[in-house]
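Entry 14. Structure prediction run on the chain below.
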Amino acid sequence: MPRLTSIEKGGYYAFPEDHLCAVASLFAPAPDGGRLLDPCAGEGRALQHLSGAWKLTPYANELDTDRAAACQALFGPTQAVQGDLYTLRASLGSFPAIWLNPPYTWDLGNKDDKRRELGMLRHSWKWLAPGGWMLWCVYGHHVTPDAAAFLVKRCKTVEVWRMPGLHLGEYVHVVVVAQEGTPSQDPVLFAQHI
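Output returned:
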């Protein structure tokens, strides 16, 4: 039944609001401000909470028309747009933080990335500023050797935080917190750590 629900929602699941305070506690508020991008923003509740806690200006993109309208109501038309993540236009390397909760689904059109979650991580990485933080919200089994290899080449640090309980009563939900930069350890050991 969860698969049918996922198909109906386009793979979209809002991040559980009761875990947002825990995620927000991972970082202190930015003393000089900055920008936070959510390229798969849903209705914008996670972005609103995290940008407020971290004192960052929120920028939202959402594919679904109704959810995008909810984002525009929260953030305004200059900070929230409706469209496909793959056609989103934003300055490269311009966001010190990205919150990425991609749709959970198969990518039938791309033979290299069998899951859309990893493809969206790869695509969104170009918007991350040097030394910036990517927060990738996925199921634990999506943190594959391919995902670890991608992160090892681009990250100074990577931590995987498990959310309590099981999402939909079935899946381990994690937030991968990765800082862009040069790895400080052996790539094989780093990948094993991830």
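The CA atoms of residues 148 and 191 lie 5 Å apart.
Filed with the rest of this week's runs.
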